Amino acid sequence: MPQRPRLAAPADTAIAAAMSRTLNALSAVFQALGDGEHTLNLVAERTDDAYLTGRADLSIGTAPVRLAMLDEDEFCDLRTLLVFALEGSTVRSAVLVATTAAEPSPRAYGWAVRDGWLHPMNTADLQAAVIPCPGAPAVTRDVCPAPVLLQFPDADEERPHV
After folding, report:
1. Which of 105, 101, 100, 103 has its CA nearest to residue 146?
2. 45 vs 65: CA distance, rounded Å
3. How much is the pLDDT for 2?
4. What radius of gyration, in Å, describes the C-alpha atoms of the chain?
5. Are 161 and 151 in contact (CB under 8 A)?
6. How far apart are alpha carbons 153 and 159 in whole angstroms?
7. Could you give the residue ranges of the DSSP H alpha helices within 41-161?
């Protein structure tokens, strides 16, 4: 059986820059989603072919401003996975899907990680990603185009991602 490739540890400066981008990206996602109950799902394929997932349920309010997580540990795990996805040296691909509780059915928005940032997914790709597995009980989600998330260059990065 062939050995899995070893993951090379990214440099501390690369992780710090990715942490900053992650905070900016999550802030942009929260603003895009707006008030309500939301679920974030992140799937990442590492360079050693392993898949990792993260999930967080949260509630966002703007009057007054509030962000509440159902489980803070789950949110920390998702945020950490997003840091490594945006850093990019150990993650081949990653997708973030946000589901917003809405009537009559939930709405789904998706972003793919490219060049160190979250970019809106093609709605056809997102539709394929959120189709419930055959035989599994699941809620059908309305797929919506994800908004473009504005990225502000990090002053600490030598080469900000675009």
Report:
1. 100
2. 34
3. 55
4. 16
5. yes
6. 9
7. 72-87, 123-130
pLDDT, one tens digit per residue, over 137-158 is 777 789 999 999 998 776 555 5
Alpha carbon distance 110, 143 (integer Å): 9
Residue pair 160/115 in contact by the 8 Å Cβ criterion: no
pLDDT digits (tens, 9 = 90+) for 79-133: 999 999 999 999 999 999 999 988 888 999 999 999 999 999 999 999 988 887 6
pLDDT of residue 123: 93
Say which amino acid occupies 54: G
d(CA 108, CA 101): 9
pLDDT of residue 7: 62
Where does residue 3 fall: left (phi above 0), alpha (psi -120 to 50 degrees), or beta otherwise?
A: beta
List Cα–Cα distances, 139 to 40, 88, 89, 157, in angstroms.
15, 32, 35, 42
